[in-house]
Every structure is written in structure tokens, then in C-alpha cells.
Amino acid sequence: xxxxxxxxxxxxxxxxxxxxxxxxxxxxxxxxxxxxxxxxxxxxxxxxxxxxxxxxxxxxxxxxxxxxxxxxxxxxxxxxxxxxxxxxxxxxxxxxxxxxxxxxxxxxxxxxxxxxxxxxxxxxxxxxxxxxxxxxxxxxxxxxxxxxxxxxxxxxxxxxxxxxxxxxxxxxxxxxxxxxxxxxxxxxxxxxxxxxxxxxxxxxxxxxxxxxxxxxxxxxxxxxxxxxxxxxxxxxxxxxxxxxxxxx
Length: 248
Description:
By secondary structure, this protein is of the alpha+beta class. The chain is built from 8 helices and 17 strands.
């Protein structure tokens, strides 16, 4: 197919991201898979522009127009994967969400055995922005570990640490309490590499047996209970994200 590019509108990948289909990169991959169509024609490039008046479909399902940007705080329980479709057939976050929510995607991920705050949005552009390292937001966790540790050893993490060739940035870790062989820590950092806390704790011969995310930037877990979802109000979004995003 040779696409004819409309003069007005926005690129299809950006449009799909704004419609909550996924991040812009994920939408570009869908186009590469040739399952995105506009007015019945399969697209082969993410540069194609749309105005929103077209019949836009992904894998045969029609995509509604861009919705008002919405953001939700969710208490993710242990045992759910943060993906829409899991090749191993494990239950997902999106299977467990209560009815009535718009189509949403996650801002970042929590692994299978991590619980706590997960931000959800219907806006792929917002998700991409809040995931960028340049945002510089602190992630804060409550961590229970098995093994022996002192505050003095934890303080060394403030300079960063290299674990099996992977360099982790500065980490703030506070020893809150110890009972028997288990200790509770509060851990904060900005990067958020894959399984960062577990790998860093293993470097201290500690085993993480509970991991709860308490906050992501200015957004807090607060009083949410497992499985709870609470929408962030427009006023709070403006205060925490600024007018640039709330005007969208």
C-alpha cells in the first residue's frame, strides 16, 4: 500500500497513544505488525496522519476518538503481571481491574511479586513522559528482607553500586526495624532499573520477601487497599503535573 498523507492531523502512532492503545513505541510496533488500518487500508508506516474522523482500527477493533486525559492510582496485588497479554497465561493487572474504567495502560511496571502503587492512564503520551528518566521522580518502597544488615552498610548505597556489571545510581536505604532474621527497610531511588531492589539486596546477601511501592514521584499509595483504584482529580493533576498536561 502507498499511503497518501493528509496535510492536517497528527501521526497515527501519536493518535493511538493519545487514545490509550499503548505507548507511542508500542503503537509503532502494532503498525509494523500490519494490524492497524485507516478506512479499511492497512498501514505500513507510523508517519501516516489522521484527523480522528476516519475509521481507525487495531486488529479489527475500532478505536474511539481521543478521550479526556485521566490518571488512576491502583494498589497492585502480588501475583499479577503488568502486561495486557501474558504469553505464559498468568493473570494480569488489566484482567483484575474493576469494570467501568476506560482502556488504560500502566506507567512503568511492577513485577509479579511486587505490590503497591501502580499508576494507570488512558493517555500513552502521558505514560511515556512520566516514565522518562529525565523526569527524575523518586520511587519509594517498603522492603522486608531476610538476613543481617546494618545501617552503616546500607549508607554505602548512596554512592551507587555495581552488581554483576550493572551500575545502579544513588540509593537511599533506611533500616526501620529488625525482628529475628527479618528487617524492614525504606528504599528510595530515581532510576528504577529492572528488579533493581532485589538485585541490590542480593549483593548484601539479603533476600527480599516482601516489596511494596509506596510512591512514584508526588503520587502516594496512601490509604489504598489491595485491588483498590482511585482516580486522581483534575485539580490534583494540575498541581502535580502542571498546566501543560491538564490542558490536554
